[in-house]
Write a structure and sequence with these properties.
Layout: E1 4-6, E2 19-20, E3 26-27, H1 30-40, H2 45-48, H3 50-53, H4 65-79, E4 80-82, E5 87-98, E6 107-120, E7 123-134, E8 142-151
Parallel strand pairs: 1-4
Antiparallel strand pairs: 2-6, 3-6, 5-8, 6-7, 7-8
């Protein structure tokens, strides 16, 4: 894991193009996939039916795309930390792409690149392109532009 720390939110200014990370690898277990299915009500067989998935297009179950996307919230604190904040919020996302399915038992990690940093009333806003890669795969699982606001 490579954590990039900033002393204050304003220190983000001018950091467009800076690459950060990667996070630690984490396994995407069938248990995690099943728990996500329960939480969201998405019980499609490709995710939870291990027997049927053996004869499916991937030879095993795969994580939900939205499960993979949600991991950005877990992986980002492993790659970026900003001191001197009263509050940080998720402001949204732009352009999300699910490129390669994450098979059950695979390991993923995240890294980022700052796309845009700007001042907003009372704070700063960053757009960080988070890439979630799969161990042993050439193409990433997911690429998302996450938008965060930081208030000193």
């Amino acid at each position: 894991m490579t954590l990039t720390t900033f002393d204050a939110p304003g220190d983000l200014m001018g950091k467009e193009g800076l690459k950060i990370g990667p996070s630690d690898w984490m396994e995407i277990s069938q248990e995690r996939i099943n728990t996500f299915a329960e939480a969201t009500g998405d019980h499609q067989w490709i995710h939870i039916d291990e027997e049927k998935a053996k004869s499916g297009p991937f030879g095993t179950t795969i994580a939900h795309g939205y499960l993979t996307l949600s991991l950005a919230a877990k992986l980002m604190p492993e790659i970026i930390h900003i001191n001197g904040m009263k509050m940080g919020i998720n402001y949204g996302t732009d352009k999300v792409r699910f490129i390669t399915p994450v098979k059950s038992g695979s390991k993923v990690r995240g890294h980022g690149e700052f796309v845009e940093i700007k001042e907003v009333p009372g704070g700063y806003q960053s757009t960080l392109r988070v890439t979630i890669e799969i161990e042993g795969e050439d193409k990433p699982a997911c690429v998302v532009d996450t938008i965060s606001r930081y208030y000193p």
